[in-house]
Design goal:
Strand 3, helix 5 and strand 4 form a beta-alpha-beta unit. The chain has 4 domains: about 130 residues, 3-Layer(aba) Sandwich (Rossmann fold), CATH 3.40.50.300; about 70 residues, Orthogonal Bundle (Helicase, Ruva Protein, domain 3), CATH 1.10.8; about 90 residues, Zinc Finger, Delta Prime, domain 3 (Up-down Bundle), CATH 1.20.272.10; about 70 residues, DNA polymerase III clamp loader subunits, C-terminal domain (post-AAA+ oligomerization domain-like), CATH 1.10.3710.10. With about 425 residues, it is of the alpha/beta class. The N and C termini lie far apart (about 85 Å). The protein is built from 18 helices and 7 strands. Helix 13 runs antiparallel to helix 16 and helix 15 runs antiparallel to helix 16.
């Protein structure tokens, strides 16, 4: 039996971490103390206690507990559970735990509703993905959602300390450890308790006893086990979009240090196309007219990164990121087009003014097209006042220059020509 299963908590107060939902006067603990058991969805990264808590909930409940994994189960498995319920004569119903529910398609998830609504099944589902993206809305609306978070470093160390005591008892070996070793494991595991326990178990059994027949788990034994830190990154999962979001917001917030951190995490995920695409978007959305040349420079960096590939791509990516993070910011272009698009959806727009319609064809003049058009280059400062917007929205304003040097120059120019 894996060490993770040997030390799995059996009581809610033994659970490590998740103090935002578990503990005195916390919502999940209060649910267990009440006779009412709602449908629940647990979501969060691997190794943070979702399955453990589901099994503890089952022990507090009088319902018959069934557990299935959506990655290798089907609708027939759910029907089998309900069928067995009818034969075991359990008036309290079934508590069904579905692990990795995001692996069920919409039709499979819809089928669960029937059994939830007639009271035959109380559902606990877990997922490593955001349920608001992957769980059927009707099922989601009938469930209470709990987010499970990565464990803190000290929480992982606490779990490892408890695990070592169990290993001592079961293996009958003289086992010692250093605090640095446990902290190293906690760092490598990155908040994943299951991974931390696996690292510890392998390190213990891979370390030879010393001359006194004592197994000492220290930093060297952890390093010799050749464990490499694995960041929580999935090109198709929520962590991918969370890191991209943090990356853009750090650049937008002019924080070059945080921008480098999240770029490094994206590079570890080796999704070069997503990084390049996001940098181009940021150059236009967040830098915009405050530094119009940013997009040109970023495009050059992106092209270079795509051409050389990893690992060298990290250098032009870093250059582009730091340029954007330390540049003046403006979202005026983004705001302007959003206002224009919104107006198209909400307002009745009349025809294009006839004097700016296409007049480059035979018969255009007979239709009055372009006959009253004033050619700006024929006027002083290459400007002449005339109407360009349709009549119904002729006074609409989409673009407003923002408070940066470039756009203040734009504002000064617009103010100047509007005097004529």
């Amino acid at each position: 039996m894996p060490l993770a299963d040997k030390i799995r908590p059996t009581k809610i107060d033994e659970v490590i971490g998740q103090s935002h939902i578990i503990g005195r006067n916390k919502v999940l603990t209060k649910i267990l103390e009440s006779p009412f058991l709602p449908n629940m969805i647990f979501f969060g990264p691997p190794g943070v206690g979702k399955t453990t808590v589901a099994e503890i909930v089952a022990k507090y409940s009088s319902k018959t507990f069934y557990k299935i994994n959506a990655t290798n189960s089907s609708l027939e498995d759910i029907k089998r559970v309900v069928s067995e319920l009818e034969h075991i004569n359990n008036i309290n119903g079934v508590l069904l735990y579905i692990d990795e529910i995001q692996s069920f398609n919409k039709k499979q998830q819809q089928s669960i509703l029937e059994f939830m609504e007639n009271g035959k099944i109380t559902l606990i589902a877990s997922t490593t993905e955001n349920p608001y993206h992957y769980v059927y809305k009707a099922l989601l609306s009938r469930s209470t959602v709990f987010e499970f978070k990565l464990l803190e470093k000290n929480e992982v160390v606490r779990g490892l300390t408890r695990a070592i005591e169990i290993l001592k008892e079961e293996s009958f070996m003289d086992l010692e450890y250093t605090n640095e070793a446990l902290e190293d494991i906690a760092t490598i595991s990155d908040g994943d308790m299951r991974r931390a326990l696996n690292i510890l178990e392998v390190a213990v059994y891979a370390t030879r006893p010393n001359k006194d027949n004592i197994v000492i788990v220290d930093s060297d034994s952890i390093k010799q086990s050749t464990f490499k830190k694995i960041l929580n990154f999935d090109k198709d999962g929520d962590s991918h979009y969370d890191i991209l979001s943090a990356f853009q917001k750090s650049i937008r917030g002019s924080d070059p240090q945080a921008s480098m951190h999240y770029l490094a995490r994206l590079i570890k995920g080796e999704d070069l196309i997503s990084i390049c695409r996001r940098l181009l978007v940021i150059a236009c959305e967040d830098i915009g007219l405050a530094y119009p040349n940013a997009i040109t420079i970023v495009k050059s960096c992106v092209d270079a990164a795509m051409q050389v590939g990893f690992p060298e791509a990290r250098i032009p990516l870093a250059q582009a990121t730091l340029l954007l993070a330390t540049s003046p910011k403006s979202n005026s272009a983004c705001m302007a087009i959003e206002k224009a698009l919104q107006e198209l959806d909400e307002e009745f727009i009349k025809d294009i003014p006839i004097h700016i319609k296409d007049a480059h064809y035979s018969g255009a003049k007979d239709l009055g097209r372009g006959s009253e058009y004033l050619y700006p280059h024929n006027y002083k400062n290459h400007y002449v006042k005339q109407q360009y917007l349709p009549d119904s929205i002729k006074d609409s304003i989409y673009y407003t220059p923002q408070e940066n040097k470039t756009e203040q120059n734009i504002k000064a120019y617009l103010d100047y020509i509007n005097k004529f």
